Amino acid sequence: MIALTAYKIMEHFKAELEEALVNVRLETKENATKKPKVELGYLEPLKVDDDEKNDFPYVLIRYMNGEEDEQDNEIHLKLIVGIHSKDAKGWIDLLHIIEVVKQHILKKRVFDYYLLEYPLKVSIPEEQPYPYFYGFLDLNFKIPKMEIEGDEEPWPA
Questions:
Q1: Dihedral of CA 128/42/24/122: which sign?
Q2: For position 56, what pLDDT does the model report?
């Protein structure tokens, strides 16, 4: 069985999001279209002469925390969606990406060995740093509990 680490789940979920966004194209600063890139954690640091607009559009999958007790094992992820828009209607593109992702994951809910739990929370801050627009999805996943094998305690007495 695959080690059920948060990173493995995030890696698998990245492939799911790339599948969900395969047909989404947004206009770039150079009047071209580009599929949103999906990354784990954080964007790569920019070099001195890089243009930060080259990062957009994107969806980041960020680990927030995990929780385990006798009954359940959960991880909490935050999706950070970022776009660049030439006009003040960039929020429409932002909402479009969020809805595409949301519909894909709610339709599926079970991803290999982990389950999307309700509630799924979406937020778009009121203040947006034009020409950039940001939105967030807070996701909770239930993952299988790790079972202790054998009759002996796994630690010395």
A1: negative
A2: 86
